[in-house]
Amino acid sequence: MFEKVLIANRGEIALRVARTCQEMGIRTVVAHSEADRDSAAVRFADESKCIGPAPVKGSYLNAAAVLTAALQTGAEAIHPGYGFLSEDADFADACARYGISLIGPDSELMAELGDKSSARVLMSKAGLALLPGSLEPLTVGRARVLADEIGYPVIIKAVAGGGGRGMSVVDSAADFTDAFVRTRAIGQTLFGDDRVYVERYLPTARHVEVQILADTHGRVIHLGERDCSVQRHRQKLVEETPAPRLPPGLADRMCRAATAAAASVGYTGAGTVEFLVDERGEFYFMEVNCRLQVEHAVTEAVTGIDLVREQISVASGHALSLDQPDVDRRGVAIECRVNAEDPTLDFRPTASPITEFLPPGGPFVRVDSHAFAGYSVPPNYDSLLAKLVVWAPERDQAIARALRALREFRLGGPTLRTTADFLRRVLEHPKFAKAEHNTSLVRDIVSTEA
Q1: Domains of the chain: residue spans and CATH
Q2: Three-class SS string for 400-447?
């Protein structure tokens, strides 16, 4: 087992990883920017190392600075959390060259799965169904012909995109060329890669993903599925497990398909296979996330399994602590992302000092957060302030508990706006209550309130 792990992230995930490391008897180093010098994660860790200024390019995306920090502090492994360098294959390769384990799959597979075009090819060969579209990046002319053949609407995606960025939905042929050029420019600006591909767009699909765990001894298991259909700007707001009201047997088929696909490519560590489910109950591969997901906590709530512990153990060469028959999912868990955003202004991020922070409590309520009274929300990073996770034996009880916890949450500042009240409107919406919602729910709520 590792003796020291460097955490190359910030916010709630850095603190969450550090807590499990402490429970495992592993010393921690938090790599932080100048803006996060007094963060909760830095205060909690055994050591800290400043890796650069507030802007992410000079700190959390500065691979050389992160690797240098690991070498200087004697860390044997780096936990990248999510975002930033967590799926950077070049960084994983550099870590390996210096004898440091990046907690995740190997760099070659990470590169293949991180490229959405090659991932589609790889997963298609593994037997997963794909939406009609291209298996390789296209020029605008070829893409336009394919879009006409598929039928509109289509979606243009950056090959290197992620986190809801680098995507454009096109409703008609007249808009295609402009959208194609715009998406290529976004891909180049955000990801340094202007390649794009095209596939059919499902405007009323459900977004369902499967949590995978795999070790280096050939064992691959799943921990069930999660529904992530409540999204704004194609980024998740509410997640739950199990996914409600799926056709009989569908969840099991998805989980078995995801497990088989992960095994076929030699996946190791924690990962998520994401699918779109159409109105007929057919599911289609969307992408693989080679990292821990923000919403991993709902899976932990229904299984009792610490995913970070399993990640670290597998990366150090140990076998998984359990096999598929040992996975016992009980009850329902819901996660609500409380973001520093103003829903009335198209979820615009808000930077502000926090003058009041009192998270909810009570039975089966978990709050993962790095915030505290006196903390200032910086303008440089993701807007996530807290993840509220609740568990209950039945879904209606879990919704009631989440609503109670959101009402109890006290979070304020001079210019701070959050998604807390909007999340209550989502949970109270009849379509959500009846599990009849899809990825259009947030858009529908916003349009009726406009």
Answers
A1: 4-103 (3.40.50.20), 132-200 (3.30.1490.20), 206-449 (3.30.470.20)
A2: HHHHHHHHHCEEECCCCCCCHHHHHHHHHCHHHHCCCCCCCHHHHHHH
